[in-house]
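Consider this record:
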Amino acid sequence: MRASQRGAAARPRVTPLGDRVLPPIRQVVPRLAVAGALALLSACSAPAPATGHGPGHVAQTSRPPARQTHSPDAQVPLGKLGRFRTARGILAVTEPASAGTGQRRRLLLQIWHPTRSAGTASRPLPLIVFGPGFMQCANPYADLLRAWASAGYVVAAVNFPRSDCRVGSTATESDLANQPRDISYAITALLRRSTVSGARLDRSKVAIAGQSDGGDTVAAVAANSCCRDRRVRAVAVLSGAEWPAMPGAFFARAPVPMLFTQGSSDTVNLPGCSVAMYRADQASDRFYLDLLGADHTGPYWGRNRYERIVARVTLAFFNRYVLGQRAAARAMRRFGNAGEVARLFSRGGGHLPSGPCVT
């Protein structure tokens, strides 16, 4: 985003909310205007309590049912919204020094997962790794992340060490080029563990998602020659773009299935940026969710009509391409075509918004 855009945008007033989620935001909140949003991460900024399990133990906190009750049936299929109760925890991992920076990076992962129950105890679970936007941590996205967890996914949000909610005035978007490596290392660190809060992970079922600068990050992991991670089976880019300073080439080869979601009234990440990626993607399995009248953060923060559509379409997308549920393709179309609220396009077709991409 241009400096002139950042300076001109109004900064919303945000009150620390603990574990609660920010309410839906009507105005546009630019990537540089959300630093205050995360005084609310007191849980995130504190180290995990000592529990006798050594460094990096996930601190688990009970949570009420997420959009419904779990089934006691051990054979119940994964992928249904609200099927399982959820809990959350924190895991700190240290990434090895990269050749580029020579520095080790400490990653704080906020994790949402199904509680250990008759429905999840006996099977490995799929993993979604999520990248928040600039100067954000995971809490504003909690409803969306919890929704995925309630369907049986372990969801881990990566708080990027030089641009998250705790960094303050020293946050820099120039570090975005290092963030794809953070996403990949988070996958590595999680898959190395035998369990995450009692949940076993299925090494063959990994997806990634991200919003705003986090969307730029996961787009690079999916489709840039610099950063491709072959363990990833599906990618959801939520109001993201091709970051110009990212090394390598975008879409030189067809990537794994990708879903691009975009608010048509977003003035921070312009619709042209998401449209450009969708058109550049030559894979047969690619989708564009046009959220009619939505701004930059509204579809992903708190519960509202856009967020409900995003939760259902992204979940159906992951069910189709991570869990291999063919019927989920119909669910994507059903939830993604919602009258005057949303339209879902696939395989490069459809009359999409036109316009420039300014990042």
Remarks:
- Residues 1-73 have pLDDT under 50 and may be disordered.
